[in-house]
Records
---
Amino acid sequence: MPETIPPSTETVRELALSSLRRIGVVLPEGEGLHARTPITGETLFRLAATTAEEADLAVSDAVGAFETWRTTPAPARGVLVRRLGELLREHKNDLADLVTIEAGKIRSEALGEIQEMIDICEFAVGLSRQLYGRTIASERPGHRLAETWHPLGVVGVISAFNFPAAVWSWNTAVALVCGDTVVWKPSELTPLISLACSHLLDRAAADTGVPRDVHRLVLAGRDIGEMLVEDPRVALVSATGSTRMGRAIGPKVAARFGRTLLELGGNNASIVAPSADLDLALSGIVFAAAGTAGQRCTTLRRLIVHRDIADEMVDRVVAAYRKLPIGDPFSDSTLVGPLISRVAADAMTQALARAEAEGGKVLVGGDSRLSEEAPHASYVAPAVVRMPEQTAVVLEETFAPILYVLTYEDLDEAIALNNAVPQGLSSSIFTLDQREAERFLAADGSDCGISNVNIGTSGAEIGGAFGGEKETGGGRESGSDSWRAYMRRATNTVNYSSTLTLAQNVSFL
Ligand code: UN1
């Protein structure tokens, strides 16, 4: 696999400073947080972390802002989000640079992440005129039965390093038009892009005459995230991260009867049927499995391929992997950037060792790269591992580029393998046989929140609802009618007759 040499920490620091300057961010100097770059694995800046008192104040400010925001007409709330979208467009390149610097994404994917933010802003602006409730036929004469949707309150957004900006925007753009206010706790690994997004929203608020406190950023560690989880003033906790994190958050919020929207681990599979267009399958598989260095929650982790075409398909995937350029995410030729940390690289090494112990054979990749040029960074070659069956290690999500290959004989078996993991985020089938495609999408087909035909598992558009079942947490964010999670429903029965009629023919008095 060819390599591109990453830039020095000094060069990355300069790039970050010029992007931040153009966006207008003033870094909060102080202690408590390190802004690092996985490109070299080194610290760029030391920043002040939000204290517990400041975080508490951020929640009270957001509670205060909710008082007026909830009665601001939704289309007027949309004006704020429209301005945010304009600012994101204006600063697209600088924001993408910060995503590359902090998450290690290659340029095209970093730009794609900012595009995803612009798209959700446009969606949310349209939505601000479409928060529809139903009118229901009443069984009583002279009565009107209808639903209205009202804002919920403060939404606590807890986001992960791998989509440090887009996942915030899915939640924030939608929550704001729904009339909620937001307190955002991003990953500690991505403070710079978080400061940039928050700054642009502050600017959008100033430009549109909206109180700044409709959104507050808290830059801190897990303890502050826990405060949001425990705080009864936070009506909805929308959290993206590991299943382990979700398992800790869910019961705590439930115990105070708060709401959660959980977007947790995935263990996504693609089935490749004998009729598949193998060229198309190859591109879909390599992007989904090796793209973003395997660090999307939608990353393809399991390839379930029909045994008649398995050798050919696997040979082609392995050949494509051998050509993947690894290294500097700023270089146009690179396709695989760094892993976020040493911890991620160690997890990959351990998973590969376990896979071998469980009978797997590593066909390509798994070795670390550029360790002389960037000794503190973690560049790894994406791996393909042929497994004899779906063993214990395959059932776990390792947040690194490992693609396990399994084979099947009939489609029922392939679907059973797809569904036999604890997670349920994304899935796909490559087939030109309509019966197979429909069977995969049917009620007894894939059990995932996202099921695709003839594309990979990752790279969803914002217009659909995003999320998954089982240990993925059940939440839906982004498009479609996901907005309902950010609002509360009131059922209204209005009697405009002069008689009090009881439902169900009950008579009284
Ligand atoms: C994530 O990895 O948390 O579908 C989100 C995708 C992107 C979003 C991924 N649109 O891959």
Note: Residues 116, 162-163, 167, 240, 296-298, 458-460 surround 2-aminohexanedioic acid (CB under 6 Å).
---
Amino acid sequence: MVYKLPELPYAYDALEPYYDEQTVKLHHDAHHKSYVDGLNNATRKLAEARETGDYAMIKHWERELAFHGSGHVLHCLFWNNMSPDGGGNPEGVIAEQIDKDFGSFEAFKKHFSSATAAVEGSGWGILAWNPYTEKLEIMTTEKHQNLAIWGVTPLLVCDVWEHAYYLKYQNKRPAWIEAWWNLVNWKDVEERLVKAAKL
Ligand code: MN
């Protein structure tokens, strides 16, 4: 298969107490894996359609490609955006850009948390670089693929599907988001910004 589930960059229990071992394990080994499997399946079905010339199910498989492909990309980012040594305030280039585009880190954090908590149903809060305006944007997405802005590069993502937090935080999504800030790997976010800004 073309796409593989990446290893976590830390142990399952490394993000305790903010992110519990049981949820991390299930989230990575079962949920993320299902997106990788779904992406591989959609990729294979689309190749079959080209080989046979049978495009009767094309709408379905293109939708599957968008859903599972976006799910896979966002989860890869999500794991790498967190670290046992994360949290605190950003420094360097990312801190300067946040101040420039949102006024202050506190204003950014409040905006990001509010937007992410308000996602309708399952989705994500996303900090992205917009190369057309040369600004950071806070965006939200429903499921993995709806409401996306074309052309932006996601730098930092917070998963607010119930599978991401329900075991520990139940229906308290804002409590999960508040805990998640303690895990943000700002070095990783900064490296992504520097790369994205060069494109
Ligand atoms: Mn997830």
Note: Residues 18 and 180 are 7 Å apart (CA to CA).
